[in-house]
Amino acid sequence: MSVTAPYQALAPYYTHVMSHVDYPGWIRHLRTLWRKYHGSKPPERILEIAAGTCPFASSPLFPDAFTVYTDQSPSMLRIASPAGASQSAPRRVACDVRSLPLREPFDLAVMIYDSFNYLLRPEEILRSLKEIKQVLKPQGLFIFDVTTETCSRRHFADTLDFEELYAPTAGNIIRVSRYDARTRMQLNLFTFFTEAADGRYDRREEVHRQRIYPVAALKKQAERAGFKVRACLAEFTLKPGSDRNERVHFVLQKP
After folding, report:
1. What is the rounded distance in angstroms from the CA atom of residue 164 to the CA atom of residue 44?
2. What is the pTM of this model?
């Protein structure tokens, strides 16, 4: 058995595992938030942080914008590809949000699907927010979402999931999820059994850890980083969000 870094063993199967995600709906919501909190003129430059396999590259958030896709996992970024043969490959940068190597000014930065929860300490949040603020233009927006304790208690407190794999290699995925309310830590253990050429199965494991922060604490960190909190919204709506919702979207603006 081998233990790999998060999103290394999972990368080839990520599209299959996340096939239930309504990415087109997410894109529509992000566009709505941009227009409501910034204006009707589309952004010229977009930075997507923790872009993974870059699902937005084949259906861009704003098609005419210059977009850079970043992720901490090179394994995930290598899988990213355009939808059509005529499209150029997405602009990909393997980097850590806590130390962004980019200095070009962006109109919009996005970080979706509870990627923000992978920042495990408050000081990591503050550092990351300052890095993002530094690469935004004045009045630029940073939009991100977090999963809440309500979601962890309802869906990940003590669960086990099983999936069969078909590509690129036959096998199975087992995911065990735990939530520790004392530490507010969400843990997901992925175990991969993939069939080798000789008929035996190789076993690999990945541990994913996420911190579940109170909404009020995130607002304070955003303000400490110098952002204006324009909105904290429930799920995929324009209604005020709170810890009672399973997912909350934040809209921050650089002064």
Report:
1. 41
2. 0.94
